[in-house]
Amino acid sequence: MVKQLSIYRFGKHIALLTLVLLSGCASLTPQQITQRIDTMSDFQICLGAQTGLDSKAFDLDVAIVAAAKERIAERKLDCSSKHDEIVRFLVTSLKQEQRYREIYFPRSGFWRF
After folding, report:
1. Is the pTM of this model over 0.85?
2. Which of 31, 29, 41 lies closest to 75 in space, CA to CA?
3. Model confidence pLDDT, tens digit, residues 78-100
4. I need a surface site. Which of 3, 32, 60, 92 has the fewest CB within 10 A?
5. Which helix (H) or strand (E) holds 63?
């Protein structure tokens, strides 16, 4: 006889599989962190350590930010020399975000501020 899989049991298996997949993706190994830091330029390391953002303006993992700060101390990088570049990057990112929101999420009503 063929066993029939009930919807309840199927749902339990899907939930368990989802939990396992999410827990495996949520944590970074030390090798992954080191590899990520090794591929970053000095500007990206300073940006990540000071703002917690990557070069696409997405949040970095806390472990990567900590590793970036360690790398700055190891290499004795001078992030103050990159301050103007970081500010330009942040301003440009904010302007792009503002344009995106104006295009895809227009304000309703007659007056637009």
Report:
1. no
2. 41
3. 999 999 999 999 999 999 999 99
4. 3
5. helix 62-75
